[in-house]
Amino acid sequence: MKLPVVWWCFGFFMLSTMTLAVVQSFSVSILKAMHGVSFEAATLTLTAYMLCGAVGMFVGGFIAARTDNSDRVVAIAMSVAAVLLALCGTGLFGALGTMVVLAGTGFAVGIGGPSRDMMIKKATPQGATGRVYGMVYSGLDVGFAISPILFGGFMDRGWYGATLFGAAAVLLLSVVAAVGVGQRTSRRTAPN
């Protein structure tokens, strides 16, 4: 816990999970309110997001196996997802377009998943895997706990587009954390 890179990893998990919590908790309500889609179509979109995320993870596994710069893959995938999520918040695409783009966001996030795990593995000092993973992955729980409090307030005020913009901004902050992890890992492992 004394290593700053562990806290950067924790921050990455917390921030990226906050965005996932917005999609899981509020996307159905946002789609209904912004575009008037049916409950069934909105829940189908959430299902498509999750399925595209699974396909993205599959593809991302091949990418992670072929790259040494896991943090860069994570940063690119999460940046693309943040842009797509922000585009959903604009409402420019209409109902069907927004549903398709939101599903595509899941694919982009999924691609970063395997590289994310490799990034954490590289950042973990030898012999401390269990402690570091326990600490870092608790960021998931913190992110899931904070997100509904913050973004639920947006939803209560009817700021549906702003909720998606906020989730995109938080995802971009997770990109900063991923880059920070990569920089600190390369400094720690660089030969003297």
What layout of secondary structure does this protein have?
Elements: H1 4-35, H2 39-65, H3 70-90, H4 94-123, H5 129-156, H6 160-189
Q: According to CATH, what is the topology? A: Growth Hormone, Chain: A
Computed Rg:
17 Å
Give the tally of β-strands. Answer: 0
Sheet of most strands: none
What do you see in this structure?
The structure is a single chain. The protein has 192 residues and is mainly alpha-helical. The protein has a single domain (8-186), classed as Growth Hormone, Chain: A (Up-down Bundle). Helix content is 88%, strand content 0%. The protein contains six helices and no strands. α1 packs antiparallel against α4 and α4 runs parallel beside α6. The longest helix is centred in the first third of the chain and has 32 residues, at 4-35. The chain is globular and about 50 Å long.
List the main descriptive attributes of the protein structure presented here.
192 residues; single chain
In short:
This protein is mainly alpha-helical and 192 residues long. The protein is 88% helix and 0% strand. The chain has helices at 4-35, 39-65, 70-90, 94-123, 129-156, 160-189.
